[in-house]
């Protein structure tokens, strides 16, 4: 398969996934993506691959920004405020991790993301239609 066909297939798959999943499914997928990129960043730090580290951290921060932008501050109340603060903290820590090549900071953010994702998965398991 050519690179163009591969990119087309990936875009078609992404579009189908976005249009057939619930908003909660998409949030869970965003968490998975951020976790995957951060695990890649930690691995890149271990291998002294600065280009890969930067790319992975940048993508993870973009996902965290998207999660933050998707919050409904008018209706979300305290939970939304707490998530906004947590996402801000995560982004700042990832910038520091990037500057200092600190895999420990990345691992900490991965743990936080996994904990929040588990909460969303629990909500999904109790309410499969949302």
Descriptive notes:
The protein is 85% helix and 0% strand. It has 130 residues and is mainly alpha-helical. It has a single domain, classed as Four Helix Bundle (Hemerythrin (Met), subunit A).
What coarse outline follows from CA principal-axis ratios? globular
Helix content: over 70%
The major β-sheet equals: none
The CATH architecture assignment turns out to be: Up-down Bundle
Structural class: mainly alpha
CATH superfamily: Flagellar protein FliS
> How far is the first residue's CA from the last residue's CA?
37 Å
Q: What order do the helices and strands come in, and which of them pair?
A:
Layout: H1 3-20, H2 23-46, H3 50-69, H4 77-100, H5 103-126
Helix pairs in contact: 2-3, 2-5, 3-4, 4-5
Task: List its salient traits.
130 residues, mainly alpha, 5 helices, globular
How would you briefly describe this protein structure?
Helices cover 85% and strands 0% of the residues.
